[in-house]
Each structure stands twice: as C-alpha cells, then as structure tokens.
Amino acid sequence: xxxxxxxxxxxxxxxxxxxxxxxxxxxxxxxxxxxxxxxxxxxxxxxxxxxxxxxxxxxxxxxxxxxxxxxxxxxxxxxxxxxxxxxxxxxxxxxxxxxxxxxxxxxxxxxxxxxxxxxxxxxxxxxxxxxxxxxxxxxxxxxxxxxxxxxxxxxxxxxxxxxxxxxxxxxxxxxxxxxxxxxxxxxxxxxxxxxxxxxxxxxxxxxxxxxxxxxxxxxxxxxxxxxxxxxxxxxxxxxxxxxxxxxxxxxxxxxxxxxxxxxxxxxxxxxxxxxxxxxxxxxxxxxxxxxxxxxxxxxxxxxxxxxxxxxxxxxxxxxxxxxxxxxxxx
Length: 330
Ligand code: SF4
Prior knowledge:
With about 325 residues, this protein is α/β, with parallel strands linked by helices. It has two domains: about 5-160, Rossmann fold (3-Layer(aba) Sandwich), CATH 3.40.50.11890; about 185-330, Rossmann fold, CATH 3.40.50. It is built from 13 helices and ten strands. It has helices spanning about 15-25, 40-50, 55-70, 90-105, 120-135, 140-160, 165-170, 195-200, 210-215, 225-230, 245-260, 275-290, 305-330; strands at about 5, 30-35, 75, 80, 110, 115, 190-195, 215-220, 265-270, 295-300. The strands form three sheets. It has a four-stranded parallel beta sheet, with helices on one face. It has a four-stranded parallel beta sheet with strand order 8-7-9-10, with helices on both faces. Strands 4-6 form a two-stranded parallel sheet. Strand 9 (about 265-270), helix 12 and strand 10 (about 295-300) form a beta-alpha-beta unit. Helix 1 (about 15-25) runs antiparallel to helix 6 (about 140-160), helix 5 packs across helix 6 (about 140-160) and helix 11 (about 245-260) packs parallel to helix 12 (about 275-290). It is globular. The N and C termini lie far apart (about 70 Å). It binds iron/sulfur cluster (SF4). Iron/sulfur cluster binds next to helix 3 and helix 12.
C-alpha cells in the first residue's frame, strides 16, 4: 500500500503538522504531501474560489487545497472543534471540511474526522482510530502511532518554549537542540501577537518576522510561552476566557507581556474579515492603554496587503520605539 495524504500548508498545519506527519508515517505505507509555501498563485486561486466574506487565512486554505488536490489520494481536513476540553476553535475551523467540499470540484476523498475533547480525551484517540480505518490500520497500530505523534508534538512545543521560532522548531525537530549563540544580540524585543497561520506565513504577513529581524528586533510569539504559564493569566481583566482557543491564547499572551513589561513593543497582527479578531483586538488595545510605556501597534493583513505599506509602517514603528528607548536610557 502506498497512499498519498495531502495536508494543506495553512491554518492548523502550523501547529500540528509535525504530529500529523508522524502519525500518518507510523501507520505504514502512507506518504504525506504538503502544498508547500504560499505563493501568489496559491493566494489568487484561494481568493477566486472562496466566499468573498471569508477571512484571508481561510481563503489561503482554499488555495492550498487547490495546489494539492490532483497530487493526492486523500485530503486531510479534520473538523477540529476542541483540543483542550475548555475552549473551541473558531467556527471556520468547524465548518472547514464542508466549505471546501461544497465549493471546490474534483476533490479526492476528504478525511474530515471530528476532534472534540469536550467528550473526554478518549474521544480524540477514537478520532485517530477512525482515521486509521481509512488505511486499514488496527487499533494497536493507531495507538502506537498516536503515542509517537504526541511525543513529536511535545518536542516541537518544547523547542518553541525554549525560544525557537515556529519554522526553526520544525526544522530542528530531528536534530539535537543547541542553544543559538548570537554574535550580535538584537537591540529590541517585540511581542508579535496573533494567529500562527498569519504570523508565520511569510507571504501573507508580507515577511513581517524577517523584516523585524532585519531591523534588529528579536520577536517572541504566543507559541514561545508555556501553555501552563498562559493558563494562569487573566484575560486582560475579563472575568472569563474567550470562547475561541487561539484568540484566548493570544489575549492571555498579551496580558502576560504587558504585565511582565520586558518587551520594547507589541504588535497585534490581525486578519481582515476575522470575527474573533474584532473582539480580541479591542481587548488587547484596552490592555495596551493601561501600559502606555510599551508602544503598541495593530497591523491588519488581507489579500491586498501591499508589502511597501507594511514595510513603511514597521520601519516607522521600530524607529519610534528605538528613539524612545534611547531617550529613556539617556
Ligand atoms: S480565527 Fe479569524 S483568522 Fe482564524 S480562521 Fe477564524 S475567522 Fe479566520
């Protein structure tokens, strides 16, 4: 058996690809194919096929599906509802397999298993058993594959919590970890908050992280914090957590970075057309107003984001933060 499973390189790919790849590999005879980095063609295809009011990361997902569909036997688009027993993923994740199935023609079968840990973690294991059945994998094989996949995910998260960026952690998964010695330490430290699939897709974020690095800024993102540390944070004085998993984590990270006060600046990268972001951005802005000594900027991306516009805003922000820091230490 040599079956090809396609995983679009968008949305939850950024958080779970190492785990999913290991899982499928361990089933035996399953080859994982990804759609690769976002290109202009992928974005244009996604924008053309997706509903006009979808957020840009979802439009991008359409483009990645189109880039994969003729090269694989199955598409892996799980219906991820909840993975922490508490918060749920944004409704777009819940409806993703249906949106894709009903708007794109000529697709291979979609593995759209529902994952919802609110019914107990055992339901996640059952979900993976259901996936295994597509490939005639027995329960023992699936459990072994899950155990290995979980181990890889843990290492991936550990590497990010040690300070590596998401792509560095993905690339370093199978190498021994070595603390990076930086010849010249960047002079500024920024927190970039938002969803990993927007921040780490360098095409749609117009190379935000690379540009900051180039401007002498070290960046931390939500993924660099331990979930247990985030879980202890208040939601910027809200009495309850936000409903949506990734928005809740971003708000907790915002609360933490403003409270610790160790960063020189905070950027919230929002996606145009994102419902949860309209709430999240307001709360982060309110928190920023309580910590006026830390400069804050909101940067919105959409399919028309011009690189020059983002570069100009970033350069101006970094320049302002640098001058401010120098003035404070003068
Ligand atoms: S959280 Fe926002 S950006 Fe992410 S999928 Fe949902 S609507 Fe889109």
